[in-house]
């Protein structure tokens, strides 16, 4: 299993949600976050220390997927979130050790 974390432009959330439904994703966690990539953020010197300014509002999605689902989920997010302009976002993939459905006690891919 993998945890897919995608940081996208907020106005793309509905499109990405629809694209994820089409590839069979049944659960997503969504958070409002702020961040910067190489284009928008910049560092500022203040009394000898560097400060990062220009955090832009973004939406972060967290999606637990089986290894079999991974490619189609990455493809769905990439296609739906893209505008071709800077700041379209980024997808992070990390190993996911365990998932537990609290109501039933199901674990692993059955709990996704
Ligand atoms: N290396 C990183 N680590 C953690 N979060 C990141 C990283 N790079 C980008 N992000 C997050 O993703 C958001 C979108 O990044 P963004 O698309 O601006 O990246 P970029 O590398 O500058 O790409 P682009 O050239 O398309 O703008 C950022 O606002 C930040 O929240």
UniProtKB/TrEMBL annotation:
Modified residues (O-UMP-tyrosine): 51
Example GO biological process: regulation of nitrogen utilization
Alphabetized UniProt keyword annotations: Nucleotide-binding, Phosphoprotein
GO molecular function: ATP binding; enzyme regulator activity
Domain of life: Bacteria
Gene Ontology cellular-component terms listed: cytosol
Secretion signal, residue range per the UniProt entry: none
One Pfam short name: P-II
Family per record: Belongs to the P(II) protein family.
Protein name according to UniProt: P-II family nitrogen regulator
Protein's organism: Spongiibacter pelagi
């Amino acid at each position: 299993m993998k945890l897919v974390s995608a940081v996208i432009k907020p106005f793309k959330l509905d499109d990405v949600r629809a694209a994820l439904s089409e590839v069979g994703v049944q659960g997503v966690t969504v958070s409002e976050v702020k961040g910067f990539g190489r284009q928008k953020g910049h560092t500022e010197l203040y009394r000898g220390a560097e400060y990062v300014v220009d955090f832009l509002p973004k939406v972060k999605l967290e999606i637990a997927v089986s290894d079999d689902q991974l490619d189609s989920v990455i493809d769905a997010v990439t296609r739906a979130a893209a505008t071709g302009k800077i700041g379209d976002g980024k997808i992070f993939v990390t190993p996911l050790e365990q998932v537990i459905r609290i109501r039933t006690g199901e674990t692993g891919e059955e709990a996704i």
